[in-house]
């Protein structure tokens, strides 16, 4: 009891120091044993094999990992992250890169382009901090990476080690002598180093040997867990994963194995179609910095296309834009808006000395609860002084209407390319739609090309694929990034009140259907690791934690919660 009072005092003092920079008060710490219904105390270990792609592991899964998989929920397709540090910060904070913005090896946040709401940067707490605050257990981080060790300097135990062998030995030592250990994170890096010399593939003998050695170390660690003097009173969750597959500059999807003796073997997959719901005024996806790539300019030809499913009939909310708000006649750039059961586009050049609002409308009914492919083509004649500039819009490959935007002059604007609500004369706040397969070409597509390509499932087969500078399928199903699949361009970052949804077999026209493999869809991501840690330690994930990660074990509680 004395120790718990001292811990509580330390936390109160710590909260007092931090209160000036926190937006919300945290609930009081909870000091009770973390026990299942069978009376066992829950504990968790997370082991990351950095640089190991799920695809490569699946080709030759070694002995100890195969044994863990037999009693696990697992995935060989955990969503890739952008860098070594980005993967670790997502793993530790439960947030995707679009929130934490950490990619450099010094673990410092990088500022990337637009922040149209001018919000203050947020530094997210790591999972060991929450465990220390809410539970009377000790924590550990064991890694050779000095910067990562410093990032988690709040760990109770953080031995300085210089090899994966030393990582293993230190982990085994901690498990054997520290009874209070409740959450431990272990980082194995030799696989990543081996990949740097010959490739991140099992065809590289050094890489394959490093995987086998890491598996041996994991076997040693599992043995050490089972040899703990209180093991029969403990309930260990063993998580083996990676910060990402492949190299730091060419990250691949990773893997996750979440193992516990009572779990039945089950592969976690993204099943069916998993788009994001854009609802209300805050949900959006933006290209934070495009270096002028999507700038409409004065003479540029371009084509923008997106699959859309409107959930209701409403008046004039903007839902796709590379432009400013529309206020009366004042507007610069372009935006798409819903107009009752139809849609249209608005152009303007107010900020650049051109004319204001120029609206071109469709009469097609698109608010019928079905998917539709919407296309906008901008065609310019003459350069550097254009003599004509025309916009043509299409619904499901059929031309609707066209009009001149020559008087608007330049469409250049600081606002980011955005999917989601855009202000239109204080109207249309009741936006609700799904989007998919946003494509941006730096040419004006011909009418027959547009018609013939509606429903094209493989974008690489498009006749103008070489002119594609942005293609976002928008079906990741997890975290906060739309990954760009075009030959050039940038990812999009999600923010606000967006919601990933499971539409089963209700696919967008340009999305390749896949078999429905489960009643639930569980795409995995590195940010899930922090959520799983808190879930297993019986720590409630509060809204102000701002987690992207999902504690998906809550779908399988009947397997491990025993009366």
From TrEMBL:
InterPro entries: Alkaline_phosphatase_core_sf, ConA-like_dom_sf, Phosphodiest/P_Trfase. SUPFAM superfamilies: Alkaline phosphatase-like (SSF53649), Concanavalin A-like lectins/glucanases (SSF49899). It comes from the Bacteria. PROSITE patterns: PROKAR_LIPOPROTEIN. Pfam families: Laminin_G_3, Phosphodiest. This is Alkaline phosphatase family protein. It comes from Sphingobacterium anhuiense. The lineage of its organism: Bacteria, Pseudomonadati, Bacteroidota, Sphingobacteriia, Sphingobacteriales.
